[in-house]
Amino acid sequence: QRFRVTAAPLGPDAVSGILVCLEDITPLYEAGQMRRDFVANVSHELRTPLTALMGFIDTLQGPARDDAAARARFLGVMAREAGRMNRLVGDLLSLSRVEFSERQKPEDRIKLSDVLRASRAMLAPEAGQDAVHLDLGAGEGQSDIVLGEADQLRQVFNNLIENALKYGGAESPVEVRLSLTDQDPYLRSPAVRVDVRDHGPGIAAHHIPRLTERFYRVDEHRSRELGGTGLGLAIVKHIVQRHRGRLAITSEPGAGACFSVIIPTAGAAPRS
Ligand code: ADP
């Protein structure tokens, strides 16, 4: 805990008394510490690809100048590193945008089954037509409508489905299931629930509460190899909060992971 002590004389001379004020500034200190950690993390994440790029530029200007095969190989690696920086900057912008807008609740009526179809269609060219199995079940009716912002909701499901494809192993398809609940016990309102489930190695229980922290990764090397920025789930959490919803993560190690997004239905969401 951190305290700030301030003292001021009560009258023109210190004899009449001194007012001493003891203030608990722990939350302020913690917020400052989080900001410092974040800046340090961003700098580290940017410096890694930047250092690689600078090294390759040196090599291309020197030893590899006349070696066409080496040049082509190095340019490929440079393009990958530049892509990594680009994704990182894109995710940082998304995160700052959603944090900035968090208090302002989105008001468009969005049908979640449409958002899920769009996410699958977007990912299909790279992942394959059968990589994602959609079960829209009970959500085909009117009531899978939430108050939201379509782009942000698409980003939530793109991130979750991409993660399930990346970390879930390619053997069995990712299952995306939409269902409706009359009363979500935590939100205390009718809600739409979307489960994104994979059948990969899953996640050990002690990692689960930390997954939505910025730059938290279970396996940093693997995340980097797969092109991850470590920000995807932080973005998901903030968008879901902005939509008055909640994110639940469950996993049975060895049998896969399930990320559930639960958002109040449009009729149920309190207007801000
Ligand atoms: P990244 O860019 O590293 O994928 P995310 O914020 O999206 O960052 O995810 C954080 C970490 O959570 C990942 O690095 C990975 O270790 C873990 N993770 C996310 N989704 C899954 C999943 N479906 N199965 C196993 N681990 C996962």
Give a quick precis of the structure:
This protein has 272 residues and is of the alpha+beta class.
What does this structure look like?
By secondary structure, the chain is an alpha+beta fold. The chain is built from 6 helices and 9 strands. The chain has helices at 26-61, 68-100, 112-127, 150-167, 220-225, 232-242, and strands at 3-9, 18-24, 108-111, 132-135, 145-148, 174-184, 189-197, 246-252, 256-264. The chain has a 5-stranded mixed β-sheet with strand order 4-6-7-9-8. Strand 8 (246-252) and strand 9 (256-264) form a beta hairpin. The two termini are 35 Å apart. The chain binds adenosine-5'-diphosphate (ADP). Residues 159, 163-164, 167-168, 198, 200, 203, 211, 217-219, 223, 228-234, 257 line the site of adenosine-5'-diphosphate.
The residue-averaged pLDDT reads 92
Number of helices: 6
Gap between N and C termini: 35 Å
Uncertain segments: none
List the secondary-structure elements in sequence, H or E. Answer: EEHHEHEEHEEHHEE
The bound ligands are: adenosine-5'-diphosphate
Q: Structural class of the helix and strand makeup?
A: alpha+beta
Q: What is the number of strand segments?
A: 9
> What percent of residues adopt helix (DSSP H or I)?
40-55%
Strand content: 15-25%
Subcellular location: Cell membrane
Organism: Dinoroseobacter shibae (strain DSM 16493 / NCIMB 14021 / DFL 12)
EC number: 2.7.13.3
Keywords: ATP-binding, Cell membrane, Kinase, Membrane, Nucleotide-binding, Phosphoprotein, Transferase, Two-component regulatory system
